Amino acid sequence: xxxxxxxxxxxxxxxxxxxxxxxxxxxxxxxxxxxxxxxxxxxxxxxxxxxxxxxxxxxxxxxxxxxxxxxxxxxxxxxxxxxxxxxxxxxxxxxxxxxxxxxxxxxxxxxxxxxxxxxxxxxxxxxxxxxxxxxxxxxxxxxxxxxxxxxxxxxxxxxxxxxxxxxxxxxxxxxxxxxxxxxxxxxxxxxxxxxxxxxxxxxxxxxxxxxxxxxxxxxxxxxxxxxxxxxxxxxxxxxxxxxxxxxxxxxxxxxxxxxxxxxxxxxxxxxxxxxxxxxxxxxxxxxxxxxxxxxxxxxxxxxxxxxxxxxxxxxxxxxxxxxxxxxxxxxxxxxxxxxxxxxxxxxxxxxxxxxxxxxxxxxxxxxxxxxxxxxxxxxxxxxxxxxxxxxxxxxxxxxxxxxxxxxxxxxxxxxxxxxxxxxxxxxxxxxxxxxxxxxxxxxxxxxxxxxxxxxxxxxxxxxxxxxxxxxxxxxxxxxxxxxxxxxxxxxxxxxxxxxxxxxxxxxxxxxxxxxxxxxxxxxxxxxxxxxxxxxxxxxxxxxxxxxxxxxxxxxxxxxxxxxxxxxxxxxxxxxxxxxxxxxxxxxxxxxxxxxxxxxxxxxxxxxxxxxxxxxxxxxxxxxxxxxxxxxxxxxxxxxxxxxxxxxxxxxxxxxxxxxxxxxxxxxxxxxxxxxxxxxxxxxxxxxxxxxxxxxxxx
Length: 698
Fold this sequence. Notes:
By secondary structure, this protein is mainly α. Helix content is 55%, strand content 6%. The strands form three sheets. Strands 3, 4, 5, 6 and 7 form a five-stranded antiparallel β-sheet that branches. The chain has a two-stranded antiparallel ribbon with strand order 1-2. Strands 8-9 form a two-stranded antiparallel sheet.
């Protein structure tokens, strides 16, 4: 893999189209507003992304996760990647698809039936899942009719979480090692963990279509090893093995287990089963036979009679219990409002959290109902699942927005509970914080209390999710939207672009300049007419300094450094690359960057007769030592002490590194490598120095 291929404009645009046309409707629903905003200035945004990728300033971000309850009592994580991380992941999957298509072609519709690719360069990544799943079911029926009545069900535990990045990349590029592949591995490591401290070399983010295909690629060696087994069929991680005898089928299962363990995959013993099927229906087992809400937007509507029929077929017994999950979910996503279905659903909600998404999709179609309100009040207090509590908060928020206010004492207690939730920082509580902040925004819209300010302290992706719920008062200077626009990551700012345009607001409303915005947000606002003038080229130096040192992007480093820009950027990129694992080398490179920008500032000072001008070359044109130009009594130190003091200390510490000199000049003591606390202190000092430096730039 070459980064130049991944970041080509056609590949990035194809990645974008495949994201927006994908069939993963439930995942896309979370990002719909962001997709629209990014699309407004698509060409400019993709061009900027390409520059970041080629310039080495693109940095993969750790994701957020929604944790959906499962029937086992555990959770299924849905990984929310940043917008441009999704594009880069899909761009990589595009390259993987081009390499693996021929290798998979002899397996597709023979032994593998999931995530079948469309034609090369198609805007759609996969064929319709209904087509491929029907083929899977038809092949099961064919095996049964051929006398293969023994059926082995084989499932993998935590399949996506156990995929090795190293083995995946070796599968895709078996004879290639390069810095670009190592860069991709580092991105995968970031996207599969919540924080740098928990980074590991396995796992794919669940939710994006690209991950579905990369997971398929990981299983190709197993599919190839098992293809001679005539009864082997696979749909994602659900494997069926058919045989004429129990021993034949069991021997295939033993082989499959061995191949899976060789690749670090773990069979799920609780779902393993071997049986003799007496009918095609038994051979199908628990496979769903009607639409999957994860890949269907539920826009189709059922008649009341059909909805009741499906619902009744899915539940049984006293007390009522769910006996067939698929018709239940299908009915709930498409049923019209109905009093009888509502009554039965309310009884099921507390006992089947794994169907919460379908339950609340149905409940959300009703207007205010006291019974729904009572259920939601109970759930926000007592449900052990953050996702369920979050969905209940959303319904309470909609009721509050519609003017339904509970008794004063209950309303106050509920608001205080929501504030407590909004203040939490647990990574697993994203869904609940989203719902609680939605409720607080609804309360502010009705009462005027400034509860939307809690949105300021949420992650950028959660801020984006909250954007449709922000009250009008959040669009004033100093309120939440101003914070959205100032975030260095673009998702929060993109989420409010449409609202800013609709309200006919300008950046002056928030006391901001376009140079302070992420380029993606500035591009979109420029296309919407909120910002005038030409777009500004991506400035990687400004982005790195903002990310590491929280320095505002107010001026152009390109204009300031001119021909020295590329050299300065190279030094800064090297410093960033080793910051976590090579502190001493970071100091060397960062000190080199400091000298480069110092010399540029001196050229500006000389042209403007600034008091801080000092001599940077000797009589024969050789550069004066950096330390000499920073002497305490020199003109630069006297005129610009905030900058000079930090630069001087850094340069002196750089000279006391073993990679510079083995011994200190004055004391002859052995020099020491930079320690962690020293690096932290220098970063803190550089924040002030770079801020003061930018103020002096033209």
